[in-house]
Amino acid sequence: MKKRSVILFTLVMVIAIAVIFVIAPIDFQKRSKEPETVQTPSPSESTDKEITNASKAKQLVSQMTDKEKIGQLVMYTPTGQADSLSNKMIKEYGVGSALLNRRMNSTSDTARFTNALQQLASESRLSIPLFISGDLEYGAAQRVPDEATVLPRQMAIGATQNVDYAEQAARLTAVESKAMGFHWSFSPVVDVNSNLMNPVIGVRSFGEDTKLVSDMAVAEVRGYQNEGMISSAKHFPGHGDTGFDTHMSLSKVSYSEEVLRTVHLPPFQAVIDQGIESIMTSHIIIEAIDAELPATLSKKVLTGLLRKEMGFKGIIVTDAMVMQAISDNWGAGEAAVMAINAGADIVMANGTEADQFDTLESLYEALQAGKLERSRVDESVERILTYKFKLDMFDHRLVDIDHVSQVVGKKEHRELAERMALNSITLIKNDNVLPFDAEANQTTLVVSMAYADQIAAAVRQISKGKVISYQAAKAAGEVLDATKSAVKKAVEKAENADRIIVFTKSDQQIPQGQVDLVNGLLATGKPVAAVSLGNPSDILGYPNVKAYISTYALDNWYWITPIPISWEAAVKVIFGSKPQGKLPVTLNNEYSRNFGLSYR
């Protein structure tokens, strides 16, 4: 009996195993017909998987030519279509990464474009997929403003003091941008904005408090990781205490090593401990570490400090090498060689086609001439390919065009962004001026340095009275200021208004023309609410204003990177929504970090 039972059990097991082997291939075949846009694994994977990915990368490197290896070290900038530049860069030079820095017309066009680039990569000798990257600091809308969800600036998120918002913002960005074919977001900005007059970071930073910046940055990185997207903390080892824009000139900071280590480095160490996959360099000379070379070109900074001391094992990518801090002093080609020798893995070679090809040729020639160590090149290429295997990019290259519209710009995404913006609006001064009565039959004048018509439209959505507007500057790429003529016209417009909302915008100290504009409107004796669109310190220029709000909406590229949800949120607060934001930076002794009023 026992023997019969054993035989019967064995027979059942054999049949079961056979069924599994028959069914499994059928199930796999069904799955293989699904779109290639299946969920990619998170970059945070098991040690065994990482070893496997590293082994695959090492094996692939052994098959590569010198030219193909150099290609992986370069991030080029396509024109916006898969044209002759992209064809040559990808198929002939084997470039491994593309930076999409243009604004695209639609999400579906963006997805088609990234698919076209990946198709070119698949036709290269080794079919190595491209990293598709972009600045996505305020969401996928930074690349596709008309359809993707616009998020508040990082300083606005800092003003909410809600760390969950930072993670949610990153997850939302990852979901929308991945649907369009992006793998890599150049965010978060982890610079501690300790210099209020910083012209290039400003509202891009979470604020001046090292712990808040660290906590927010870790939350963003976690959000990206949970959605299987690479993020990049920038700008190492800190761009928050500079008075110059490195897009325009080379900047040097002379603070002590203690300040560097206690103020600026902790956010980078925090995201490294979180397992961040990439860090972007700054073109700043940090005298405490290397008094001669900017961080991007300094072995002391990239290899000594970042790799060895801080233990970073991910991809080091340079900031744009076309920025004048680099291009005016070294040139694209020479600087690229210096950056790789210093420890960078990928050189961001934007600029003209000539600049980009010069970068490739200079790196290749340096390798042939022994000016680039072969082991240094192989190390970087292996690291890059390991992450491409980690993200399963070899098996899932293309995105589903039809899926994009279902994901990008969803109602729930926009509602979340609007909540963040509303919670960020900071009421800094209010001497019984606000809130304005939305039900009153009063004429409201909206005066702004930029986007006056759009802001007035937001006022019309709330106020029952008449709304008139006046834009006091051209807002077409230059520093914003109001001429005497503009001030006069604004004051004349005010004669027909019962109440006034004036929006100012600065990156550093507010220009005198804007100060005159606000003071001219105050002189009318009518209720005036002033609102800063950029740097929250504008009130220091017109301290006699009786109501003042900060939105953190515009950086120094205001004409191409507006955040409408932030000025729309400010309008809601002006007409009665409860202000909840707290200053992420100190303006003076009266208005310090964490200061913020509310309505009774």
Which features would summarize this protein structure in a list?
single chain; 600 residues; alpha/beta; TIM Barrel; Rossmann fold; 2 domains; 8-stranded parallel β-sheet; 6-stranded mixed β-sheet; 21 helices; 43% helix; 11% strand; globular
Structure description:
The protein is of the alpha/beta class and 600 residues long. It has two domains: 355 residues, TIM Barrel, CATH 3.20.20; 150 residues, Rossmann fold. Helices cover 43% and strands 11% of the residues. The protein has 21 helices and 16 strands. The strands form three sheets. The protein has an eight-stranded parallel β-sheet with strand order 9-7-5-4-3-2-1-10. A six-stranded mixed β-sheet has the order 11-16-15-14-12-13, sandwiched between helices. Strand 14, helix 20 and strand 15 form a beta-alpha-beta unit. Helix 3 crosses helix 14 and helix 8 runs parallel beside helix 10.
